[in-house]
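Pipeline run #58 for the internal structure catalog. This entry was flagged by the ingest filter as a single-chain record with no existing model, so it goes straight to prediction. Upstream metadata was stripped on purpose; only the residue string is passed forward. Reviewer on rotation: M.T. Logging verbosity set to normal.
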Amino acid sequence: LKPGDPVEINGRVFRVAGVLAENGSQDDDILFIDLTAAQQVMNKPGSVSLVEVAALCTECPVEEMVEQ
């Protein structure tokens, strides 16, 4: 995939905004999508099943990030 490519999810077409570099981890298979669009395409309006916060540094203010 590259920026601008179409991706179809449950009959709805989205455009790739960007592609992260592979790093050899499970994160290589992750898709980021706007929350409202994800809720609509999965037919789960107003529903959230997971929120993940990740910090890739040892000195990141993780507690502050979680509060936000």
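catalog note: The longest helix spans residues 35-41.
catalog note: The two ends are 31 Å apart (CA to CA).
status: ready for reviewer M.T.
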